[in-house]
Amino acid sequence: MTGLPAARENIKALRVQQSAAQSRSSQISAELGAARDRLAQDQRAAAQVKEAADAHRLRRPSFLATLLGLGSAARAWRAADREITPALAAARQCLADTHAQVRHLEVQLFEEEEVAKWLGATRTDMIRRLGVMEHQVADAVGRWGSAVPTSGADEDQRELSGPWTDSEWNAARTKVFLAALRLHQAFAAAQPRRLRQSLSAAVDVLTGGVPADTPAAAVLAAWQSLFFVVPVVSTTFASFARVFSHLGRESLGWLFIDEAGQATPQAAAGAIWRSKRVVVVGDPKQIEPVVTLPLTVQQALRINAGIAEWWLPDRTSAQRLADETSRYGTYLPGDNGLPGDNGLPGDNGLPGDDAEVWVGAPLRVHRRCDRPMFDVSNTIGYGGLMVYSPSGDRERLTLPPSGWIDIPATGEARGHWIPAEGEQAWKMLGALRSRYGVDAKRIFVVSPFRDVADGIERLLREFPGVLGGTVHAAQGKEADVVLFILGGNPASARAKHWAAERPNLVNVAVSRARRRLYVIGDRTAWSRYRHFDTLSSYLTSGLDS
To answer: Does pTM top 0.90 for this prediction?
Structure first.
């Protein structure tokens, strides 16, 4: 497959080179024709000069004529000879030079013609081989369909396909997997007592019942027995050091880090050290690690260490460091938005936040959200790189379209909790449950602020089953319907600046909603801020709650 584009490019290059060689041949041929004409002229001129010289020598005066003429005849002959001899030498030299030029051009022409012939033959052979490859690809596409990654495919179609994951391959992989399970089952049936003892030791390891001086090899054997029957074990970085404390470097085969954009690099270091291979999965455009160390202290430590701002704990993550080591990837817009910033509030990040972000092996297909949630995320976080492909057959909803319910913040505020917004959310939850029959488990309520999350918790006591909280707590969750209550004390612009500093918060809030997103808040106040202006531009207003 990878040979097709290269073959086509080679054919184009050979055609250009062949044309260049043919052009040079034509030019040399023209020069050779002119040189041969000059050679003929020079030959005639040289013959004329030689004929004149021969005639002059025949007219040389005899000794008697010289005596009788008192030497005048001899002097005249010698004077003429002094003119004829150099002329003859010059004609011969000119003839020799022209002849040498003709020979040189003949050699050049032969070489260029041979090069042109070789390039033509090579190009013909390459075209033949390209035809064979194209025929093979056509056969493969006919057999395996979109599983064959053809170079001419539309970019979106390429992202939507699964290279080489055709039905035959998947069936073979399934057979291998089932055979491996049967092998494990046969082993367990053959050695039940030994396996039971090993698993009992593994339980002791998990519950902390293993002494600190237990040999590492024994603990590793217990883990291997557990992995034999439970191939994947899930844990947090907070408990990793305790659970795997006895294991040394590269003791584990694979480590999968999910939501790595939320993990600080130092939290992942021990797990990575204990693993042979690591797969890091995350999104630098979603919620970042929560670092409790004050920024002033981070800056002081950074300056003392002499490192760049990029290495501040709350400016990087395990995901970003993994991306930096990735050979293949792409660039996303910087944290402060796309080029051509409109100068909205919220641009209060650190130096370098506007720089593009390198991400390794990006998974560009977005399957969770309907529009306009997809469009908002794609615009503010990914520079339009994502491909829209909602998963599965989605039921038709009778709900109103996603929109922004404008609640001007002119009344009472309790911290960042705006009671009028809470009242609106209460009405909407009631309508969703009673009028539209939306299951409580399919509704999620989020906000940027802790004060609002506390108000949501009180509100949801009347709606059992509906979940809610801060945007930070919502990462990794999703729901068909999301209410995004903005809140924000109207007397404090600083909170809005914080929420709009980067696209991450809006991106996470919006992308929690699979089918509908309803934003509740002061549209005029919030749409002045970066990222929230984009959110506003995609949402309708004036919804009937």
So the answer is: no
